[in-house]
Design a protein that fits this description.
Elements (H helix, E strand, L loop, with lengths): L7 H9 L4 H13 L1 H19 L10 H11 L18 H6 L4 H7 L9 E2 L5 E5 L7 E7 L8 E3 L3 E7 L1 E4 L2 E4 L3 E4 L8 E2 L5 E7 L3 E3 L4 H4 L6
Helix pairs in contact: 1-3, 2-3
């Protein structure tokens, strides 16, 4: 059971469909693994449906229906596009325990992690970029070898990390599968992956991190990580 959850504001925005694409993917993946936040989203969605029922319907011109059919006819034969993380669902016990990728993320990326464009970063850490149209946010999978410490750093903006497999610890505590961590310029930390198992995370950030260690400070002008 995850111990670090998303804020009520983020969950409500997700239920209302007002989050950008990258953050929606994080939330959908988290609630697949977290029954607490999944229940809250279902409650917010039900509340939103109740409020919609209380809204008086607006009058439409007589041509509205024919216009809708015209649009549908023009799209006939077009490639079907779906949002893989739309809506909520209850994952199976096997899915929660064995598959490192929650279903929304797996549906988006496919099941073969090794086929992703992994690139080395530092100290054996690897990352694979995920291209999403989300207002300049950077989205990636990050794989940290067991027992490896990330360089000490803070953040130029906001970053959200969802643990998919393994875990890590920093000054904020321990983060395991399904946990989320929100970081901003006030957070200065050095995550260390758990011993015995590599740590796989989904990370979304809107600005590069800033190294804060004795040597790292001198490297900042040369990195865009």
């Amino acid at each position: 059971m995850p111990e670090h959850h998303l804020s009520e504001e983020i969950l409500m925005a997700y239920a209302a469909g007002s989050l950008p694409e990258a953050l929606s993917l994080v939330v959908a993946s988290h609630i697949t693994l977290c029954p607490v936040c999944r229940s809250k989203v279902e409650t917010y969605e039900a509340l939103g449906g109740s409020l919609m029922e209380d809204i008086s319907p607006a009058s439409l011109p007589e041509s509205a229906l024919s216009n809708i059919f015209a649009v549908l006819d023009s799209d006939e034969g077009a490639e079907e596009k779906t949002v893989p993380w739309g809506g909520t669902f209850t994952p199976s016990q096997q899915e929660r325990e064995r598959d490192p990728l929650p279903r929304p993320l797996r549906d988006y990326l496919g099941e073969n992690l090794s086929a992703l464009p992994w690139r080395p970063v530092i100290r054996g850490v690897e990352e694979a970029e995920i291209t999403l149209g989300s207002n300049g946010a950077r989205t990636r999978l990050m794989r940290i070898p067991a027992g490896v410490a990330m360089p000490r750093h803070t953040h130029g903006g906001e970053e959200i990390t969802l643990v998919l497999e393994g875990g890590y610890s920093d000054a904020g505590g321990h983060f395991g599968r399904g946990d989320v961590q929100l970081a901003d310029p006030s957070v200065d930390h050095q995550p260390v992956a758990d011993d015995g198992e590599d740590c796989l995370c989904l990370v979304v950030s809107d600005a590069p991190l800033k190294l804060t260690g004795p040597i790292g400070r001198w490297l900042n002008p040369f990195i865009s990580y």
